[in-house]
Amino acid sequence: MKEITLTINDQQVKGREGDTVLEICQANGIDVPTLCHLEGLSDVGACRMCVVEIEGERRPVPSCTYPTRDGLVVKTHTEELEKYRRQILELIFTERNHFCMFCEQSGDCELQKLAYRYQMDNVRYPYTFPSLPVDPLSDYLVIDHNRCILCGRCIRACSEIAANYTLDFSRRGWRTLVSADLEQPVGESSCTSCGACVQACPTGAIFSKLSLYKGSTSDCQQITTVCSACGVGCELNVLVKDNNIVRIEAPRLTELRGPLCSMGRFELLLETRPRVTSPLVRGKQGKLEECTWDKAAEVIAGRVSGLKDGFAGIMSARLPNETLSLFYKFIREVIGSDSIDTLGGRSYRIIAEGVSQLQNGGKGLDIECPIEEILDADCILIAGADPKKTHPIIGTLVQRAVSQKGAKLIVVDSSQDVFPLWTDLWLKPVAGSEGVLLNGLAKIIIDKGLVAREKVTAEPVQSLSQYKTGEVNRATGIERESLELAAEMYGQAKRGVIIYGEGLVQRNDPSIVTSLLNLADLTGNQAGGRLRVISLKPAANSRGGWELGLAAGEIKRDGLKGLYLLLGDEQEDEELLDWLKGIDFLVVHASYHSPATAIADVVLPSPIWAEREGKYMSMDGRLLELKRVLQPKDGLLQDQEILIELSKKLGHELRPS
Amino acid sequence: MVAKVKVATAWLDCCAGCHMSFLDLDEALIGLADAIEITASPITDIKEFSPVDVGIIEGAIGNTHDEEVAKELRANCKILMVWGDCACFGGICTMRNLFSKEEVFRRYYLETESTKDGKVPSSEDLPQLLEQVKPVNQVVKVDCYVPGCPPSSKAIHYALTELLEGRIPVLPSEMMRFD
Asked: ∠ CA(A99), CA(A104), CA(A106), 5° rounding?
């Protein structure tokens, strides 16, 4: 873009043509007050706080929406402008019912800060005292229209960041309200509780119930860590006061990897399960009884020595790399068993096997692309995954690509259309026929000549050419027209992205994964040597555990005498629980009491996510740092310390690698 | 010795928190006592105003009595200063403006959970509630404002000191508080 020179407050400054006057002021350290502007969102000029004088303009103009051109002469802080700004503030205060003394946001409110800055110690206009509702009916959010200044930041956050389009203005003029889905209560609307609006709101009009009156930003220490709710690996800014979490925010709300979902922002704070606070062993009456660390270690040592392969270890993939690898070492070197797995390890074995069957499968999971590619996609194919439920930020990126960038969306799912509002085409194969469907699509793509030039002679093209499309119709139950349409949409895409998840993996058939990767490979949907394919991995550090080789083999259930379940703060599922019930000697090392701890012979306390530190690997392979945000209660040991102590009892010295 | 500055204060529709904040000046009060003389005030319990240099009002204007006191103090002072969000902006007292007077009476005198056979009091001797609670500057001219709920002792001290030095105080931004 062309570089231009303009004069702001009698000083020559440089900028790029088309940048707004506000952007250039901010880039040059000129502090123009704003309210409706939030960096990263589009600007609308709603509040008029940023008005400036521009030579040639008849009246002050909002700098946030005024595009610059060469030679512009701007004044930002004349007496007149400052008078207008103070006047605007007074008018905003008279428009609704702004009572700071009991407002949750007092101290963090941008409107209040500006009123202080402009020394607004009285208001010269009559107040309107409108009678306005408060909507407290959502699980996490409250909308208090009394404190709303109609800046629209929440609405822009909801559409531009979350791409959920729940919030909008309803009514007109001074009766205007921010409303969810045509004035539905937020809790009954299409809101996904991602909380982008909460963070975007400059006043106390939208706030979180979970943080209510717990403290303002200035009371808090802020720690940036990584979310442990799913594998996307979002950064969290955790605000802590007196060793309690006040709230969780997105450190860079408006950036591509910035937004959070309800799991990261709210659900991490919703924990109600009772903590395991001390070691427990099953006593003579068959009840779990509190005991010392030493006693618990003795009991374990007494029961596991000599079991070797009769003893297995399973670990949660929510634990950081350091804990996972030490546990692996503990089971292998101290216990002497090869029976080790992570929860969700089966998914790894399917995916890894599927990848290895691909012609250039030697890259392992590195064959997949980073999640940024979703936003860049012109076609997205989602197979056997429900990202909005399991990896909501992936769902957000998909909706952004579709709604803001016009990407086409194909859903392959035997039971539901996971993006009912956005899907262009829903292919509903008979359950289990997904592999046939994917091969069928590849075949049609070959027939239509949509194979990438360099792939025309590739082996899969030869074998897939034998495929009979009629059989595909029969096996999948999908009519030919839909198959052809899907093949065209994906085959013609330049940057088609495939996202798949547990729905596909749980078919227990690695060849489905291979078929899917083939589809991307044949159509040349690559980015920087990686296929535009993303698998949604089950837990926060699944990829970390998998890359460390901790999920390589299945646990041999026959002849298993004992098991150590390092569960951390994860919740066990029914299937695992059923299996645990049949085990002679069960150690459960967990943060919370659960059905698994209830049947354990020894229970060891474990820290929760906020009390740990270590490395995570996101599902797309970025190494991230989990930081400790809360100090564990006295006497609570880190998992590694416990493993080292246990090893001593078993006559080994265990060292972290 | 220089004559002391005469000050009268009044509290209207409010909680008395601003006067408490004034008393929270603690040892600084001793210094002030050399410079000012408090005449009529809830602190001295003198209710009749005589002419003073500085009138101070805490609280909003909620009824005819408040209106009368504000006007009378205004008439008796050279400079009128107001303390607190209620006097500056209407504050928490104006929450009743979201309802009609009838609704407020009904809720307060008839419907509260502990009320049995309630009755809305009415007597010519009682001040009448205004339709709307107002900040002081909508009834009389105000010369300076110390917002806060309540204002900090520091802010009150600052404002008084400025006045004593002959300036009309405007709280600096860092001293401004609405809560």
From this structure: 65
